[in-house]
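Sat 14:20. Reprocessing the chain from the morning session after the first attempt stalled halfway. Input below, unchanged.
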Amino acid sequence: MINLMSNNLKEVIMAIEKIGEPKYRASQLYTAMQNGLELNEIKNMPKSLIDKLSEQGFNLQSTRIVKKQVSRDKTTKYLLKLEDGNIIESVLLRYKYGNTICISTQVGCKMNCAFCASGLKGFIRNLTTGELLGQVVAVNRALGGTVKKRAITNVVLMGIGEPLDNYDNVVKFLRIITDKNGLNISFRNISLSTCGIPSKIEKLAEEGLPITLCISLHASNDKTRKQIMPIANRFSIASILDSAKHYHLLTNRRLIIEYTLIKDVNESMANARELATLLKGISCHVNLIRLNEVPERGLRGVSENEMKKFLGTLCQYHVSATIRRKIGEDIEGACGQLRNTEEKKRVKRERN
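Finished this time. Tokens:
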């Protein structure tokens, strides 16, 4: 089977010319694919060509929506099935300025952060470029969007998985999704969240892809970070921030620092002052995040008043910061929760 969703337009042209078809057919196929169409739904190609493509093993779509949950605030979580049977999650976030999709980059996650559900079932594999793009395409179509009139305005790589641990596929995805011949989403409307792999951050800075880089810091010192993020045993905060500053220097994009407040772990005013000192002189904005409590993890969030006190301390030290709006709490909104629930149901069915 040849899944074209992982291919850029040049590669689709090569594949089409290889079977003796003209170049313009590749453009038609490329558009149809990013519109979310299956081969048998394409109307501007002769049936004989559709049959030929099918016989040659061509396939357009790599992810299919199998379930969705809609929260009270209209946040929608999608469960998508891959061709090998694995399932992943994407989340649609609705804002006044448009619709943002948060996509997964891996099936499971190696990072196993203490506050996240994504790593509970371990790591299975990286998503292909087509499976990354397929999430955006599937949800865009579900909302009635097309290549010419997108329903998705922003993309965030912040779902299940560590994007920079799937570096090559992620970079190719970024090039395809910003291609003017396809969905043509602006670099300025794409964000990538990483728990911090310095060498990959520096490599990304050299790619010429000026997306917004979000650093999942969640601690004001290495000792605390090691308690909640295993990757902190490999990379210090200082090394991560150095690579992030290099990214800012080459892209001129302000950094986003993500900081989830966890009761009795990282939420003291001393932590706030330490964080402010850490970020002094760095062009960044801090997103303070309310903990989406995961029962298996045993960690607790803080009160609204404690959130505001932490924010107030950062502001006193002239750190740009806001509290991220909590959304999707009633639909297992945290990364990996819906997938884990479905996996439990699957295992139970198999046992019975």
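The chain has a mean pLDDT of 93.
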